[in-house]
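A reminder from the course coordinator: this example appears on the midterm review sheet, so study it carefully.

Given structure:
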């Protein structure tokens, strides 16, 4: 079942969530071939754009193989967000949707009035989002939570639609909950009665059943996969299969997982260089071995002993020799 975000057609119902330190161009490109309907950049700081921060600009890298792509912008004031957007509009970047991060609960973002802080004041939220919608050259989407301390998600969604937002991704926790406790999907079970634009449900999607339950409860147009997909790209493929009433198998195949790990690692090294990529991979690479018996020793070796590309490739080869060949 496809749907539109503005004039952009989304042909699959599984969306790859934006994740700081994870959803690099290499990660988006890697995950895209498993059947993602939409990918997101990492959070792009408005001030990072304004001051031409090298790290911020690096996050905008794409060659189009990760599209449809949403660039996720965040900031603490309408004025700086609009300035950042003006710079983004002038850049020759291939993307499809401008997303506003109104969900991040991290203290360093919230204390600067960014992320989920925007959920505290509906009038300021409307003023900022409507200004962005008028200035953006792409359809605007918003990622939100159920509320800041208390749940006010229906009010927020009505505000966003009125402001011109074309799509809403909802993490079904409040800012106060951070990432603890269970997401409350029932809090948006009647959202279709409140807004007419499409929306996506997010929070603790680790299995096919998690996705199907979230969609069933919320009647959302799509489901967003975040941490559950790290090291488990077949989760995307399996959710799509389930939605098409096709058979699927959630068991990880070790040989296949090592192939995925190798492919992604080499792509990340090519993007960031060996030193930075290996540092990033120490936390990501072990996820490819989660749920597979007898891998604890190798996960420890990857996270503690990997300093070069060859170190990682040697560990992968050692696993192959001991468990596959």
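Designed residues:
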């Amino acid at each position: 079942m496809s749907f539109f975000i503005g004039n952009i057609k989304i042909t699959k119902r599984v969306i790859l969530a934006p994740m700081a330190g994870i959803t690099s161009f290499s990660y988006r490109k890697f995950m895209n071939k498993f059947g993602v309907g939409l990918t997101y950049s990492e959070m792009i700081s408005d001030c990072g754009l304004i001051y031409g921060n090298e790290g911020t600009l690096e996050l905008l890298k794409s060659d189009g193989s990760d599209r449809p792509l949403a660039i996720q912008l965040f900031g603490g004031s309408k004025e700086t967000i609009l300035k950042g957007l003006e710079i983004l509009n002038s850049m020759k970047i291939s993307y499809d949707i401008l997303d506003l991060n109104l969900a991040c609960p991290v203290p360093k973002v919230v204390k600067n009035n960014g992320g989920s802080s925007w959920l505290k004041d509906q009038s300021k939220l409307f003023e900022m989002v409507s200004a962005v919608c008028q200035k953006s050259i792409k359809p605007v989407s918003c990622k939100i939570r159920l509320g800041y301390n208390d749940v006010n998600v229906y009010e927020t969604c009505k505000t966003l639609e009125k402001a011109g937002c074309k799509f809403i991704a909802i993490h079904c926790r409040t800012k106060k909950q951070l990432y603890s406790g269970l997401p409350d999907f029932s809090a948006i079970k009647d959202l279709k009665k409140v807004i007419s634009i499409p929306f996506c449900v997010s929070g603790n999607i680790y299995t096919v059943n998690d996705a199907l339950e979230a969609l069933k409860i919320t009647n959302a147009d799509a489901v967003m996969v975040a941490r559950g997909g790290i090291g488990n790209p077949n989760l995307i493929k399996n959710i799509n299969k389930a939605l098409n009433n096709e058979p699927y198998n959630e068991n990880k195949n070790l040989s296949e997982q090592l192939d995925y790990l190798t492919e992604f690692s080499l792509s990340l090294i090519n993007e960031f260089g060996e030193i930075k990529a290996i540092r990033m991979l120490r936390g990501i690479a072990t996820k490819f071995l989660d749920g597979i018996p007898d891998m604890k020793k190798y996960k420890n070796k990857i996270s503690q002993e990997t300093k070069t590309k060859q170190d990682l490739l040697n560990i992968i080869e050692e696993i192959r020799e001991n468990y596959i060949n």
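The radius of gyration is 20 Å. The chain is about 40% helix and 15% strand.
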